[in-house]
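A quick word before the example. In earlier lectures we treated sequence and structure as two separate objects. From today on, think of them as two lines of the same record. Here is DUF2851 domain-containing protein written that way.
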Amino acid sequence: MREDFLHYLWKYKKFDFTNAETTRGEKVLLIDSGTHNFNSGPDFFNARLKIGDQLWAGNVELHIKASDWYFHQHEKDRNYDNVILHVVWEDDIEVQRHNKTSIPALSLKKLVDKDLINGYRQLFASPDNWINCEKNFREIDNFTLRHWQERLYLERLEEKSILILDLLEKSGNNWEAVLFQMLAKNFGLNLNGDALLSMAQSLDFSVVQKVSQNKLQLEALFFGQAGLLKLQLKIPYYKTLQQEYTYLKHKYKLSNSGVIPPKYFRLRPDNFPNIRLSQLASLYFTQKNLFSELIASKSLESIYKILDVETSEFWREYYSFPKKHKEREKKLSIAFKDLVLINTIIPLRFCYSRSRGYDEIEDLLDLIEKIPAENNKIVQNFTKLSKESAENALHSQAMVQLKKNYCETNKCLDCAIGVKLLQQKT
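And the structure line, produced from the sequence above:
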């Protein structure tokens, strides 16, 4: 038995509330179960109850055992002085508020249908499953699934906003600087995201703006700050980059002492950090008003066009400085542009529109739904379990959110799918 099950029972009134009585025998009439609180403090705010002949308005706290009240030291916390009912599975002790007044207790142990309890236990009966409900996932109807996926995607946007708002505060509300830092992180992908973000954070964005007229200097700036110009090579282009970086480092008093070294291990050559940094330099060289253009662009095609850049000419024949290969252009692929949209542009526009007091969410949802679904292990596994495949990036992002924030943390009763499956068993 877990507390989240008690929260579910109380929130959705999944117990015989018509026969509910306190452990002292007073009739409990549930008028409003209150607002579920997911932060610190009592579990439900602003509940309305009638206990005996007395109407009450206040908070409700839930525990498996009544004695957990003292285990969590609620008796010392004035935030719990307004608790009007203690809902428990087992009432093993009478509890008191900070001011020594007793709190009525309601035990749910004999008020819950056994089929519902069995259904809840079955959710957690196979700990080796990929997700708890994988045997029944296919039972979920399309309406429930799609509606939940939209909510999950909005949750994911909120999570991605945390980093953006943090970078915004550190940059003194410089949105262009935040875009540069988020793009650098995105261009580094999972393996080198933190490394390239640290490179971008080591620079004042004004330096990028000042050298953006010179593509060679931009590359030298990014490569040098990332620590990629420390070798002794006789390649003319490499030596030129070193010379340019030495000049820039002196002129702008640059330091890269805190920059995380990028990695190459197990990366496809197209994702090598030097390739991605050259493409990022090309983007800032060709797009002089990058932030305003990305904010104003309404269509997927117009954003693709903005991101239509490639490496400098040297990298057409190299993946790394010492090794030459047959010439081929290295442009940003559509798939990579989609990742930039998913992880940088849409979250940034989400934050920017809210900061300016207007709502762009419908436009952003329309944009994400035009992007093809990602093809990763999480999406593949959910597709195997479901009658419905991921049709677009909103669905695939929602699947990632569902797996990481609900399935892996056993938050089945905070999940629309888990709740639906339980409801079908009663």
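Notice the following. Residues 275 and 315 are 7 Å apart (CA to CA). We will return to this example when we discuss secondary structure assignment.
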